[in-house]
Design brief:
Low-confidence stretches: none
Radius of gyration: 25 Å
CATH superfamily of the largest domain: P-loop containing nucleotide triphosphate hydrolases
CATH architecture of the largest domain: 3-Layer(aba) Sandwich
Mean pLDDT: 91
Largest sheet: 6 strands, mixed
CATH topology of the largest domain: Rossmann fold
Helix content: 10-25%
């Protein structure tokens, strides 16, 4: 269900946790709120569900205004019909799986026959159709999280909010469940907001990602667009760009200056060429993804625009090898090469080059 947030402000004493935030979430969209601890993402989600009262703003779900500070409207959380899944599973160990899923329906006094029907339906949707009679204390972490999700879905909510629901699981299970969750959300066509600080999770799950910083949205975009075109160095850093260097634009390329910019890294004599054109003298952050660094063996003849470097370490990761490089008279640099190639040994001399169209010049 379409959700609109307008000029949302949340304060804790003198601290502004969410600052004049506006956001539209389309019907059936999975929006991921991504950011570090304290950025306001969970506070935003709690405000939407009704667990936190904002100081200002409006929240509309479908055609219903559930919060309006100016008009004094604040619909209680239990009347907003929003499903929630938390980090902690909140599963009662003394109840069976079916009883856990049925609990909120019993509280709503749903008829018993309908409860049985809904419980069977949602357990099947999360792959636990044969687990209804099983005691909850006998479940694995992944199964408990599925039960928590089924319990929220059983209420047939108009939207689903998930607060880092996979963070307590091991890495392999977390990766599998994120794809299952995405497929389930798409098959149901349910509007969902997912809160996380894990950029891999955000990229895998989202239709759009809102990166938050100090209570505001730093950038809002689809995962592909945000990965390729981060707006600031903060967004790039949070999306996992390892090579971010403070620099200053010292010149342009081409007879008319339209062929790109030259930026000198702070504290060094190293110049990096980028396709973007920025004003000479302006500060910038040079951002280079490890997969865009081209490595070639050292030779007497250095390629144009190449930097000499030494391999500090090489980590073989199966499908790729990750290198930590020490650039001659420059900073450390991280690079990724296909795993089919034999890894270079520490101490190996290489040339590094980054195509100008792969170099980004970003603001702070």
């Amino acid at each position: 269900m379409e959700t609109k947030v307008r000029n949302l402000t949340v304060k804790f004493g003198g601290h502004v946790a969410v600052n004049d935030l506006s956001l539209d979430i389309a019907d059936g969209e999975m929006l991921v709120l991504l950011g570090p601890s304290g950025c306001g993402k969970t506070t935003t989600m709690r405000s939407i569900v009704g667990l936190q009262k904002p100081a200002a703003g409006t929240i509309t779900i479908g055609d219903e205004v559930v919060f309006d500070a100016r008009r004094g409207i604040n619909v209680p959380a239990n009347d907003r019909n929003i499903g929630m899944v938390f980090q902690s599973y909140a599963i009662w160990p003394h109840l069976t799986v079916a009883q856990n899923v049925a609990f909120p329906l019993r509280m709503q006094k749903v008829p018993k026959a309908e409860i049985r029907e809904r419980v069977a339906e949602v357990l099947a949707s999360v792959g636990l159709q044969d687990f209804g009679p099983r005691g909850a204390s006998r479940l694995s972490g992944g199964q408990m999280q599925r039960v928590a999700l089924a319990r929220s879905l059983a209420m047939r909510p108009r939207m689903l909010l998930l607060d880092e629901p996979l963070s307590n699981l091991d890495a392999k299970l977390r990766e599998r469940l994120r794809y299952e969750l995405r497929e389930l959300q798409q098959s149901l066509g349910m509007t969902a907001i997912y809160v996380t600080h894990d950029q891999s999770e955000a990229l895998a799950l989202a239709d759009r990602i809102a990166v938050m910083r100090d209570g505001v949205i730093e950038q809002l975009a689809g995962p592909v667009d945000m990965y390729r075109n981060p707006r600031t160095s903060f967004v790039a850093d949070f999306l996992g760009v390892d090579n971010i260097f403070a620099a200053r634009v010292t010149g342009h390329r081409g007879p008319d200056g339209s062929h790109g910019s030259v930026a000198r890294l702070d504290g060094s004599a190293i110049d990096i060429t980028a396709a973007a054109v920025k004003e000479v003298g302006s500060p910038a952050y040079v951002c280079i993804r490890p997969e865009d660094v081209v490595l070639t063996p050292s030779s007497p003849r250095r390629p144009e625009d190449a930097l000499a470097a030494t391999v500090v370490s090489a980590s073989f990761l199966g499908d790729r090898t990750r290198y930590h490089l020490a650039v001659e008279d420059g900073p450390s640099l991280f690079a990724v090469a296909p795993g089919a190639e034999d890894p270079l040994a520490p101490g190996a001399k290489v040339f590094t080059r980054v195509p100008p169209n792969k170099v980004q010049l970003l603001d702070d």
